[in-house]
Write the structure tokens for this entry.
Amino acid sequence: MPSPLVSATLKSAFLSLCSALVATFLTPKDPPILALVIYSALATPPNFLWQQFLERTFPGYITEKKEADGDVKGGTPAGGGVSLKRRLNVQNTVMKVVIDQTLGSVVNVALHLGGVRALQGVPLPECWKAVTEVK
């Protein structure tokens, strides 16, 4: 069984292939299928690790132990209690979304715009221009 990182990378590359093939029927210009699949395979591992970092830094769930007398001891990993309750940490979840959709998305879009072009053989100055120009 492959590791979760390898599994996610293979699934991402496959989905990228599928979406590029569908795009060939929906757009007048054929997408760069090979470049998109290769980019997807290269971009998934850093994104996977980024998501793991965010989850470690801002855990989405807190496991609480509920003792026999009904008292709740919060914030500690599971074990030893009569019953366990997982509770969504809303503040951490919001933090993860905000950080990922600001910092993470800017980096991902820039790398996608330049990276796919670079994989197509476009010179680096033109790749950089694609990243920096705003239409």
Remarks:
- The longest helix spans residues 90-119.
- The mean pLDDT is 90.
- Residues 100 and 106 are 9 Å apart (CA to CA).
- The beta strands are 61-66, 72-73, 83-88.
